[in-house]
Amino acid sequence: MVAYVVHYHTYPENSWWGSGLSNSGVRYSVIISASLAAGTLLNFKRLPYGKLVSRQEILYLTFLAWMLVIRLIQGQETPEDAVDKMFKIAVFLLALTHVVVTPRRFNQFLWVLVCCGLYLGYDCFTAPRSMYIQGRLEGMGGPDFSDSNAMAAHMVALLSIIGIRFLRGGWKSKAVSFVAGGFVANTIVLTRSRGGYLASLVTVFVMLTFTPKGRRKQILALVALGAMGALTVVDAGFLERMGTLKAGEREKDESAMSRLRFWKAGFHMAVDNPLGVGPGNFYMHIGEYLPEDAGRDTHNTYVRCVAELGWPGLGLLIALISNAYIVLARVRRLAAKAPELEECAWNAFGLQMSLSGYLAASMFISATYIQMLWWLLLLPTALERVIANAVIGESG
Prior knowledge:
This protein is mainly alpha-helical. The chain has one domain.
C-alpha cells in the first residue's frame, strides 16, 4: 500500500535514480499492484473490514461496469486506454478500503500522503528553470498530475490533510506538517493555476462552515497561519494571473474563453450521444464540433464524463460524490457521540475539505480517470470501516 502511494507521487521512471530499471522495461506500477493484490488476497480472511461491499463500493463497481459496457459499444479510438487504467486503479482502491480499516492504519496512510506531499513540494521548489513554461511550473510529478492545473488540484487536496495532521499532532508532527504545508502551498503558487486558487478558496469556505464544535479558534488560527504563509510565497506573477478571474480580464484571456468553447461542445456531444462516445474518445470527436480545436481536451471532469460515458455515467459520478459526503457526515455524527472517536471525526473533516477542493478544481481539469479523485471518493468507505472497528475495539 505504501509502495503504491510513494510510487504514484515520486514516479521513479522520470527520476535519475529510477531510470536504470525504467530503461530495462521493468514496470514498477504493475509489480506493486500485483504484489498488493496477492498480499491482500492471502490475508483477506484476517482483515477486519466487516461488510464485504459497501454502498460506495457498489456505486464504484457499477461505474466501472458501465465504462466497460460503453467501451464495448463504442470501441477504443485512441491509444489512451481509460478502461484498462481504471481497472488497474480498482486493485489499489479495493485493497485500500479493505486493508486501511483501523485507526492506526488510517492515520499511517494519511502520514504517507503528508510525506509524499513534502517530497513532491520540495521537488517542485528545487525544479530548474527549464521546467517553467510561460512562468508556470509544468512537467513535475507523475503522468496523472504533471500538468500545472492537475498539480495544483492534487496539492490543494493534500493541503487539507496536512492541515489536520498539524492540528492533531504533537510538536514533531506539527513541525513536519508545517514544512510540508509550506512546500505544498508554494507549489500551488508556482503552478499559477486559477483553478487551484479557486479550489483553495472553496476549501477555506468548507473549513469555516463545517468546523467541529468548540474548535473554531483552532481553525481560525490555522487559517491565519495559512494566510501569513501564503503572503510569503505569492509573487507579482501569481497575483497578475489571478487578476484575470475578473470578468473584464477573463474576456481577454484566450485560455479561459477556450474552456467555455470546449464545455459547450462537450455538452452538445452528450446531447447527440446520450450514452457517450466511449471512454477516452472525446479527443477524436471534439473536431466534429470545433474543427479548429481537433484533438483537444475538455478541461472539465464533469463535461468529459458526460461526453464519454453519457448521462448514466455522469449520474453515477454524482451519486458517488453525494454518497461520499453522506458517509463523511455519518462518520462525524457517530464520532461526536464518543470522545475516543474524535480522531475519526477530524479525519472525516479533513476529507470533506480535500474532496470539496478537488471537486472544485475538477471544473478546470479532466480528472475523470485521475487517481486522486477516486482515492478521495473511496477513502470515506475506509474511514467508515475504521470507526466501526474503533467502536468494536472499545466495546470489546
